[in-house]
Write a structure and sequence with these properties.
7-stranded parallel beta sheet, 19 strands
Length: 208
């Protein structure tokens, strides 16, 4: 269990978000694990998991870029940050993660899941990072891809289905000098390629 930690509140002495700073990274664990009641600030990834068979991520607070003029959202340098990333590229492992009652602020992506079976419930995701900078150092003769959209919750590819319920996705427009509510690259909840051979449905219910 990883619980009751406060990490990197000042944003200076521990990590730099231009690097791949991660608060918790769990890979290929086959024991029941919990990440709960932590306060995480100013990192690029809050929680990163890979092929964990039984994991609960709950009641954490993550602010990916604490604002010096809070609540005004003026600094958006951490523009590739992800609050919680849970994935299972090894399809031979049945990966199940429960993500609930977390609060995530100022992330480019709040919660993202790949190739797994997740229950994402009761999370609050506030004030997404809407700074989009296209990559410019691509190899010769290759066109750089466009800047990635911002997602509050994004789930992709599953054999068992996703459940996305009772999450709150909120942008406080008064905190912005931009207009994220009219930007098509700012996306609330996205399900992609969730049809599967097992005919397990995904459910999106009662989100706001």
């Amino acid at each position: 269990s990883i619980d009751d930690n406060t990490v990197n509140f000042d944003g200076i002495n521990y990590f730099n978000w231009n690097e791949n700073s991660v608060f918790v990274e769990l890979r290929h664990t086959d024991i029941t694990s919990w990440v709960t009641n932590n306060q995480v600030y100013n990192v690029k990834y809050g929680v990163f998991t890979e092929a964990c068979t039984d994991l609960s991520i709950s009641n954490n607070t993550m602010d990916m870029e604490v604002q010096s003029n809070d609540p005004t959202y003026s600094s958006k340098l951490n523009d590739n940050s992800i609050g919680i990333l849970a994935r299972n590229i090894n399809n031979n492992i049945q990966s199940k993660t429960t993500i609930y009652n977390n609060t995530i602020k100022h992330a480019k992506i709040g919660i993202q899941a790949w190739f797994s079976s997740e229950r994402i419930e009761g999370n609050t995701i506030e004030d997404m990072n809407d700074r989009f900078v296209q990559q410019s150092n691509c190899p010769p003769f290759f066109q750089c891809p466009p800047a990635s959209p911002a997602y509050r919750i994004r789930v992709l590819n599953t054999a068992d289905g996703y459940v996305v319920e009772r999450n709150k996705v909120e942008l406080t427009l008064a905190n912005y000098t931009s207009s994220p509510n009219t930007d098509q690259k700012v996306i609330g909840i996205s399900l992609e390629n969730t049809a599967n051979a097992n005919n397990n449905e995904s459910f999106v219910n009662c989100n706001s």
